[in-house]
Amino acid sequence: MRICQDLALVLETNPNLRSLDVGGNNIGDIGMAFLSGGVLHPHCGLKELSLDSCQLTREGGKILASIIAFSKSLNELDLRGNPLDNSTIRLLCLATSLPGRVLRKLRVSRASTEEGFWFDLRQDNPLPCEISMD
């Protein structure tokens, strides 16, 4: 996952980079682990991150929950096309509720969830950011 290591370095050293689209690249959970170091770096100014169809699973979801919880700049996160299960999506949504988070929009695939999942989730905990399901 050399490319993800390189991208992390770019994020650490280029605070003016605002948008990154890695969509369609099979970076998987290991690549996400490398990339997260750059996204969470204090000098990272990234506002939009697209990880559409990157083969992220539960482990990648845990990493992304940390990014949602601790990123000081990330406003939009696109996770459509990834095989995320309900518990992972619930974890991501709960991370948006933590104090100090800045994420405003989270995109996931409707196919990732069972019927009634979103209704139940919103009933349990109103979500502070926009969640879109495509």
Automatic annotation (TrEMBL):
One of its GO terms (cellular component) is cytoplasm. One of its GO terms (biological process) is positive regulation of inflammatory response. InterPro entries: Leu-rich_rpt, LRR_dom_sf, NLRP_innate_immun_reg. This is Uncharacterized protein. It comes from Marmota monax (Woodchuck).
